[in-house]
Structures are given as structure tokens and as C-alpha cells.
Amino acid sequence: MRKHFVRLALLLVVAFAPAVFAQNPERAGTTSSQSSERDISGVWMAAPPPQQPKQLGGMVPKEVGMTPWAKARFDAAGGGNNDTNPQLRCEPLGATRWTQFVRPFEIVQTPGRIFFFPEIDHAYTVVYMDGRPLPKAEELPFGPTYMGYSVGHWDGNDLVIETVGVTDKAWLDNAGHPHTDDMRLTWRYHRADHNTLDVSITFDDSKAYTKSWTYGPRRYLLKTGRDWEIQEQECLISDQKYFEENIGNHLKKSQDDNQQ
What we know:
Number of domains: 2
Number of helices: 4
Helix content: 10-25%
CATH superfamily of the largest domain: Calycin beta-barrel core domain
Shape: globular
Distance between the termini: 87 Å
CATH class of the largest domain: Mainly Beta
Structural class: alpha+beta
């Protein structure tokens, strides 16, 4: 009887040992505090305007010049004029323009990937966290896309994401600034505290702009509760009244802000 008990005890130790070691942060080569600080999952919403960068209506500072190609495209957009606005044709917002809207987005983290789900436009971004290199243009599996191709890594407790392969069909911001397929984005997500996330974006597109620049940081606040579950907010021409009330008015306000 005693031998049976000892044998059973040994089997239990062996069976549960992997779980015990996996839950021990010191054996995993990290600390529990570092692990928790590297968790930015949750629903986030832009903080009130006083805490936002001055160029909120457009993401390109005035001191950044445009190449002739970009200037021609920007002039054709009319500063975000609704007649040329691709969103009013229900085209996707793209990799950066969705951040111009005061709408929540959700971050979901898994060991090898991080997902971003903006409520506006109901699009999503996949960020690969498995150490793969950023692909070259000719290596993109589907060519340039609206959200691009992103890989990320942790710099201390900041999440750094690099994005390439964003199609030039989308505007860069609500002001109608263009970009080329060669644009490269570097995002930095810094959790200032548990409820506060500061996001900066560095733009590098030498075919469209005379120098690189950084937009932000833009501040986001953590939101919890069922009222903040991400909803569908599609562009629906068939529901024009809903679209005008929820999106069209915001676009008009952004256009007015850009012209001031």
C-alpha cells in the first residue's frame, strides 16, 4: 500500500512539473512585473483633445515638405474635401487614418501575435511577434495592402511595431495627405500607467515627403465594462442616414479644423 502511494505521488509530481515551471517567472527568464507591464491588451479610447498632439486634424506637420508627386495628390484631395474622400465610397481607411477617429479599438495579445481591432471601419491588424524579419517589398505575400505587414518586438516595456507594404490607395490622414507604397511606419506603444497608453508613429516615405517625422504621442485611456465591447461600424451606403450621423459629421468637422 505504501509503495503504491509513493508511486502515485511521483507520478503526480512529474505530471504537474511542467505547469509549475511554466508559472515560475524566474525560470522563464523574466519577472512577474515585467510580464504584466508588457500586457497592453484591452479596449482603448482616445483621451480628450487637450492631451493630444496639435496636428490632430492632419498627421503631417507644416514644416515637413512634400515632393511634387505628393503635393499634386494632396491638392487633388482638396484638404479632405468630401467629394474626393475615398471613405465616402466605402474604401478602407488604411493603416494610419483610422487613428484619426475618436473611436475605441481593442488589443488582443497572444504569445506569437498581437491583434488590433479598431471599431471604426471594422478592420484589423496582425503584428507578428515571433522574431521574423520585416519583409522586403518583393517578399510581401499579397503585395501592398490597406493595413500593411507588421512585425513587432519589445523595447523594455514599450511595444515597437514596424509596418511596410501599405497601399497608396488610402489617405494617410483625414486632411487627405498621400503616401507611397514604400512608406515605412514605426509605432511605439508606451504604457504610462495601468490606464494610460501613449502611442507615437514615425513616418518615413522619401518619395512623398522631404524628411521623416513623428506624430504623437497620442494618448489613449483604458476602458472596461460591457459598454466598451467593440461593435461593428461598417461603411454602409445602404444605411446612408446612419453613415452621415456617425461618420459624415465627424469628417466635416475634421475638414473644418484643417482649414482653420
